[in-house]
């Protein structure tokens, strides 16, 4: 009995070791199974960043899943993703683990390589092991380029996946914003991007200019498709009821912004907000779109009506930004400063020449936010007509906020001058005209005078905002731009004269027309 008891642990150890070895051998063999044995109608989408802050990749995932592809979305958590990604039965969100907190206490020289090693290991674990059957397609966004392009190249070789690269921008051009273009790190980044990005099964581009440039410079191999950004179909212009509901939720957060004291019109929830009112001005009056609000000091609200927009509301202007160096926020600050002076000069003019109070709301998160918001705080001490807030909006409220605004401003200048700002696409989807900073390929999206205006300096931006908001809320020029956005639903190429007329459609229509035929070939 004693001898058997002593030998038992050794036997158990060998059994466990044998099972583990067999399982490991099976997994290794499975990795190198014939490449034709991938799972048809399946896709893995790699986002080396916050999934909830990657709208284009979330829309890709939704389109794959709605077209009956088993879809795996791999990336980091943080922001809440669009609701479709959590309800579609054929879609799985697979969140990558953050590096252990103990690593963050290390010096950057040690932390950086360890973070990359942890990142590489976690991505390969998902793509090679956690997803049992090799997916038919492996879609990755670029940038970031390092190490994602090398990882998907390797996984594609091992598992036989068809790699699709969605070229949002060029990673090395973003690095060149911080370092000289001749810096070794920039050169290495460019080589890495070109080497591992050249031979994908298919390449998607956000602009014609990016496609032409990369085909010429890097000799890309594979299918090449321009897939312009488009908003999902639920992006639309909001009704007065939608605006009332949204600001009823947002209003309680506004008192913490001390600069708004005595700036906003009086309101009292749930009957009125800073943008809407749902009471009659007098007994028997018929409500209109821009009905004058009842004073909030009225003791009784006897006739509650559907909400309408207030005539005394501020003009709501929105700019969506990531607060990064490729967006010169100083241009907007100077334009707002000029607007303040002009509004003061015209304060005693008649209504048709007067400028409204302007509430500038900047959405998004990023590294330069605190710097610019401190500058705004100093400027607002001398402002009477302008206020500027920074808000973070969840995915559900973001399109509603855009659909409630009067004007959008885009400061995106593009590190490569080859991509287009997704924020403008979102604004157009919500029927919101845009003033956009000019760069090389912007006219592929913004048609000056048709769906928005293009500016080159703070002076031009100030002039455009004034011309669009004069006599607010009766704004003929702004209304004309908005009507163009709402009425234009398709794009056409005029082959006879070579003119390309501006067209518009939803993300679903564009994806099904452009990418779906390739996937189902």
Model description:
- The protein has helices at 2-31, 55-66, 84-87, 108-130, 148-159, 171-175, 184-197, 208-218, 240-250, 329-345, 369-380, 398-404, 422-429, 458-469, 476-487, 507-514, 516-519; strands spanning 39-50, 70-76, 91-95, 135-142, 162-167, 202-205, 223-226, 276-279, 304-309, 315-320, 358-363, 386-391, 407-410, 434-437, 452-455, 492-493, 500-501.
- It is of the alpha/beta class and 521 residues long.
- It folds into 3 domains: 33-226, Glycogen Phosphorylase B (Rossmann fold, 3-Layer(aba) Sandwich); 240-309, no CATH class; 315-501, Glycogen Phosphorylase B (Rossmann fold), CATH 3.40.50.
- α10 (329-345) crosses α14.
- The chain is globular and about 80 Å long.
Based on helices, strands and strand pairing, what is the structural class?
alpha/beta
Radius of gyration: 27 Å
| CATH architecture call of the largest domain | 3-Layer(aba) Sandwich
How many domains, as an integer? 3
Low-pLDDT regions: 1-16, 280-295, 489-500
pLDDT averaged over residues: 83
Strand content: 15-25%
Order of strands, main sheet, comes to 3-2-1-4-5-6-7
DSSP helix fraction: 25-40%
General shape = globular
CATH topology of the largest domain: Rossmann fold
The named CATH superfamily of the largest domain: Glycogen Phosphorylase B
The separation of the N and C termini measures: 68 Å
| Strand segment count | 17
Q: What would CATH call the class of the largest domain?
A: Alpha Beta
Tally of helical runs: 17
